[in-house]
Amino acid sequence: MSSVRTVLGDIRPADLGVCDAHDHLFLRSPRLPGQELNDASAARAELEAFRAAGGSAVVQWTPYGMGRRAADLPLLSRAAGVHVVCATGLHQAAHYAPESLDGLRGRLAEVFVSELTEGIGTSGVRAGLVKVAGGFHHLDAHARRTMTAAAEAHHATGAPIAVHLELGTGALDVLDLLCGELGVPSDRVILGHLNRSPDLVVQRQAAASGCWLAFDGPSRANHATDWRMPQAVLALAEAGFGDRLLLGGDTVVAGARSVDGGPGMPYLLRRVRPRLVAELGAERVERILTGNPARAFAVDWR
């Protein structure tokens, strides 16, 4: 039987509810000095604000070695009344000190599988997806290595693979590698940041493969998101791909949280949802926020 693996245990997909399909409660990176998401009180307040806006679930894409604070997630989930799904996986090499990757050589898949099935460190929290990342219009050796390990972890567990597309590019290269060479079923692949490269042709080609398309980070006006995303989502829905779409907030720095003066997680429901309803209708948007993530993150765990 399929289930979604949350930080509090496996739940029925139908119980996931309104879902922010890509966001972060905790995150740190040498590329974002001084902007870390590392405040548990702020994370709880953000979850509570999302809940107050009508949200029920948040999928945290923060992978291995980037400050996930997995041990804190169950308490936050219970306190806020929001389902939380966390990730294993690995981001681009630039997000790590080089020496921190040395010990992972040759055992990435083993680490991913362990975090999906046994738990992250001593926290006992099991990951519910694998997060990896491509580069700008290409896949370097690090990306190919991590995606190969992610594919091995998928084949061992059934877990979905969520992919950071750098500025929304490289979608077809990712699918060629994961689904073509490595044999991952396309419906187990979630492509993130499609809104950052509003190429409707590539988006339609990617959707036609059967993968999931995540439109996330909607409050980043410099990424041509807010004003183009509704039309892109509408075009895909009218082309018959409404059942392949996901929505997320992708809050990556402290100043972007709603409780710190930014748009944060509630923006997805407070501002983006009404705008999409005006374009697509309430029924379609409800499916994108509830039915689609329930299927995207549901796994027949092995």
TrEMBL record:
The keyword Hydrolase applies. InterPro entries: Metal_Hydrolase, Phosphotriesterase. It comes from the Bacteria. The modification N6-carboxylysine is found at K131. Keywords: Hydrolase, Metal-binding. Gene3D superfamilies: Metal-dependent hydrolases. The keyword Transport does not apply. Belongs to the metallo-dependent hydrolases superfamily. Phosphotriesterase family. This is Phosphotriesterase. It comes from Streptomyces hyaluromycini.
